[in-house]
Amino acid sequence: MPGSLEPLDVGVQIPYHFRCPISLELMTDPVTVSTGQTYDRVSIESWVATGNTTCPVTRVPLTDFTLIPNHTLRRLIQDWCVANRSFGVERIPTPKQPADPAMVRSLLNKASCGSTPLHSRLSALRRLRGLARDSDKNRSVISAHNAREILLSIVFSSMDSEPSELNHESLAILSMFPLSESECAFVASDPERIAYLVSLLFHSSIDVRVNSAAIIEIVVAGTRSLELRAQISNADEIFEGIVGILNYPLVYPRALKVGIKALFALCLVKQHREKAVSAGAVEALIDRLADFEKCDAERALATVELLCRIPSGCEAFAAHALTVPLLVKIILKISDRATEYAAGSLFSLCSASEQCQRDAVAAGVLTMLLLLVQSDCTERAKRKAQMLLKLLRDSWPEDSMANSDDFG
């Protein structure tokens, strides 16, 4: 029952036939199985997913696992909800039905058939894109029909010519799916395919650029071969393209999310971090740090720490006036992981630059570090904080060190 009110407290009982026999809760998406019994979709799917092959009520084996929406019962439940609105009962929404496998198969066949008119292929891809965007269940249905292989073939079908809307639509759908190791290797092992994706990072449409960056990140993260990962991160202008997405002037959350995931994946390849610095990654990271959501901020700080491990990166961060104050300001504000990365970055910067030490002291790092070592954060974060305190001991004003001996 939606809301926090208990049925007995408000004087309204949920009708017996509106309750799911498995969960005993009000059904929000009633479906009927082959035995004629009706259950809430989530409950019966969980029942089957755990290996059960019988009907929970009748114990009769299920002859097939097709779930038929019970629209009549759902409408009755919705009417009952409306009639009992005064008791705090909220109307259940009309659920979107999962994609029909036969329809998905037909759309994929139409999209992949070279003899089908272009507008029909585009229409099929757009319908698939809409379905994929709707739900995880739809994406599972689409993926089960060899969709990724079909989409990959369409994306790379015109590398020698100007990309068409067909390629862009396929790219958009493909960016919603994880790729298998073999599919990642299919892309990563061909320098021409990587160069094609990099070229799309400079497309006039920000959506095409972001979708291409998403595929690059998926491929890098899904490729086990260190040699292939290094080959991707060494592609001409790949870092410039990713940094350009991070620097996109308008507020576009997906651009920030995909851009930082791709930059972090590429920076995990140690030998090409210099290229990230040369492409302006340092400025982009610091300028955008306040715009990232929590998970993305963690990834951004992890990337900062990675780039601080190379001399050119450390120098570039030290030269940016906002680096040290920002790292000090957020050291305890995001998460334990973010704290580790921020403390590690500050340690690298302060180890390399006396000016960074003075900037950190001026920004109030002493208070933050003393709070950090007394907090419930991870041992690794505390260890980094203690190392930084020891490094900066000679930089503190004398009056601020009166009670800090315990943290040496």
From TrEMBL:
Keywords: Transferase, Ubl conjugation pathway. Residues 13-87 form the U-box domain. PROSITE patterns: U_BOX. It comes from the Eukaryota. It catalyses: S-ubiquitinyl-[E2 ubiquitin-conjugating enzyme]-L-cysteine + [acceptor protein]-L-lysine = [E2 ubiquitin-conjugating enzyme]-L-cysteine + N(6)-ubiquitinyl-[acceptor protein]-L-lysine. GO terms for molecular function: ubiquitin protein ligase activity. Pfam families: ARM_PUB (PF25598), U-box (PF04564). It is an enzyme of class 2 (transferase). GO terms for biological process: defense response; protein ubiquitination. Pathway: Protein modification; protein ubiquitination. Its EC number is 2.3.2.27. PANTHER family: U-BOX DOMAIN-CONTAINING PROTEIN 26, WDSAM1 PROTEIN. Functions as an E3 ubiquitin ligase. This is U-box domain-containing protein. It comes from Nyssa sinensis.
